[in-house]
Amino acid sequence: MKHYFRSIKTLLSVLILLFISSLSGYAQKGLTLEQALSIAESNSPTIKKTRLNLVRSQENLNAQNAALKSNFSLSVDPIGYNQSRDFNDLISKWNTTTTTTSYGLFTVSQPIVLTDARISLTNRFGYTDSYSEYAGATTKGFSNNLSLTLDQPLFTYNRTKLQLKELQLSLENAQLNYAIQLLAMEKSVTQAFYAVYQAQQSLDIADQAYQNMQKSYEISKNKVDAGISAQAEIFQAEVNLATTKSDFENKQVAFENAKDDFKILIGIDLYDDIIVIPNISVDTVKVDISYAIDHGLANRMELRQSQITIETSQFDLIQTKALNEFKGDLGLSIGLSGDNPSLGDIYSKPTDNQNISLSLTIPLWDWGEKKSRIKASEAAIESNQIDLTSEQNNIILSIRQSYRNLINLQNQIEIAQTSVKNAQLTYDLNLEKYKNGDLTGMDLNIYQNQLSQNKLNYTNSLISYKLELLNLKIQTLYDFEKKQAVIPVTTLKN
C-alpha cells in the first residue's frame, strides 16, 4: 500500500510539473525511460559503430560461405595475333611464324571443406590459324580440352576449416560485443535519466521551500508590523527568503544542465524541451546470492568472449606449428582432348590425358625459429586462460558487492522514509511555534532545510536502489524484479 501511495505521489508531482510548464508557454515533451533507451539505441554513436562492426563480421562470414560453393567462371580471348621471327636451333635457320588464335575457358571449381581439397572441371575450346615460313604451310583447326583436376594438400592442417571457424568466432564475438554495448548503454542512459529526475526533484523541493519561506516571511512581516516581534526578525526573514530563492534559482540551472547532458547522450536536439517521467516506485526484491552468482557465471558474455580469445590463440598455435612443416601436395588430373580442322570431327581421334603429381616439402634446419614461436604462442594461450579466471573472479566480486549494496540501500530507504515523516512533523510543529512567537525565523529556516534535505535524501535512496537493481541485472543477466532471465540482443533488428 505504501508503494501504491508513493507511485501516486510521484505521478502527481510529474503532472504538476507538466501543468506548470504548459502555463509557462513552452511545449515540453514527456519522456519515459523506455522511450529514452529506444532513442539512444538508434542515435548513439557507440551503438552505431558496434552495429557496423557486427554487419562487417556477418558479411565476411557470408562471403566465406559463398566462396565454399561451386564457382563458375568463363574467360574469353576473342582474338590473339602474334608474328615473330626466331632462330630455330633444330634447322639452324631463322624462321618466321604467324599465329592467330581465339579461345574460351570455362571452369567449375568446388572447394572440399572436409579435406581442404579443390576439385575443378575445365574446358578449353579454341581456334588456331598458324603459318610457318620453314614448313611453308598453314595449319588451321579447332581444339577442345576437357579435364577434371583434384588438388589435395597432405600432412598439414585444414586451412579452409580454420578460416571458416575464425570468421564464425569473429561474428560471435561481434554479436556479444553488440549485446554488451546495449547493456552498457542501458546503464548509462538510466543513470543520466535519473540524474535529470534528481535535478527535477531538487528543483521541486527547492520550490516548495521557497514557497514556505515566502509564507514565513509574510508571517514575520505581519508580526513586526503589529509590534509583536522585534524589527530584527524581519531582517532575518528577508535573508532566509533571499537564500531560499537563490537556492531555487541554482536548482533551475542544475536542472537545465542535466537535461542538456541527457539530450546529448541519447542523441536528441538540444532545443527540444523535455521532462522525464520515471517509475520511481520501489518494491524490495528478494535476491538469492548463490543463484545470482551461478546465473552470472553461466551467462555473462564477457566469459564467452574470453573463451573465444583462447580459441583464437589456439588457432594461432596451429598456424605457428605449421611453420617450416613437412607437408605435401597431391595432384590428379584426367581429361580428353581433340583437334580437327572441322568442328564436327573435333573428337574423331581423341587423346586421353592423365597426370599424377606428388610434391613434398621437407624442412631441414630453421635455427630454432619454430620452437621459439610455438613457446610464444603457448605463453599467449596461458595468459588468456589467466584472464578468463580473473574475469570469473571479477564477476563473482561484482555480484557480491551489488547484493550487499542492495541490502544496505533497503535500510537506507526505510531510514530516509522515516526521516522525511519526522522532519515534516517537526517542521509543522515549529511552524506553529513560529506563528505563536515562540521560535525565531532563523530557527525555522533550520527545520525547513532539514525537511528539504530529508526529502532529497529519500528520492536519492530510491534512485540508488533502482540503479543498483539494474546493475545486478547486468552483472547476472537475470531480472530479479521480473523473475526472468535477460536475453541479450545479439543480432540486428530487421
Short description:
This protein is of the alpha+beta class and about 500 residues long. Helices cover about 60% and strands about 20% of the residues. A six-stranded antiparallel sheet has the order 2-3-4-5-7-8, with no helix packed on it.
Describe it.
- The protein has 2 domains: 2-59 and 165-311 and 380-485, Outer membrane efflux proteins (OEP), CATH 1.20.1600.10; 71-112 and 117-156 and 328-362, Outer membrane efflux proteins (OEP), CATH 2.20.200.
- A hairpin with a 4-residue loop joins strand 4 and strand 5 (137-154).
- The chain contains 9 helices and 10 strands.
- The model is unreliable at 1-12 and 14-26 (pLDDT under 50).
- Strands 2-3-4-5-7-8 form a 6-stranded antiparallel sheet, with no helix packed on it.
- The longest helix is centred in the middle third of the chain and has 67 residues, at 159-225.
- With 494 residues, it is an alpha+beta fold.
Using brief descriptors, characterize the structure shown:
494 residues; alpha+beta; Outer membrane efflux proteins (OEP); six-stranded antiparallel β-sheet; 9 helices; 60% helix; elongated
What is the CATH C level class of the largest domain, in words? Mainly Alpha
- Series of secondary-structure elements, N-terminal to C-terminal: HEHHEEEEHHEHHEEHHEE
CATH architecture annotation of the largest domain: Up-down Bundle
Q: Characterize the largest beta sheet: strand count, sense, and whether it forms a barrel.
A: 6 strands, antiparallel
Give the DSSP E fraction (strand runs of 2 or more residues).
Answer: 15-25%
CATH superfamily of the largest domain: Outer membrane efflux proteins (OEP)
- Mean pLDDT value: 86
Supply the helix-strand structural class. Answer: alpha+beta
Number of domains: 2
Number-wise, the strands total 10
Helical content band: 55-70%
Instruction: Please mark out the parts with pLDDT under 50 across 5 or more consecutive residues, or reply none.
Output: 1-12, 14-26
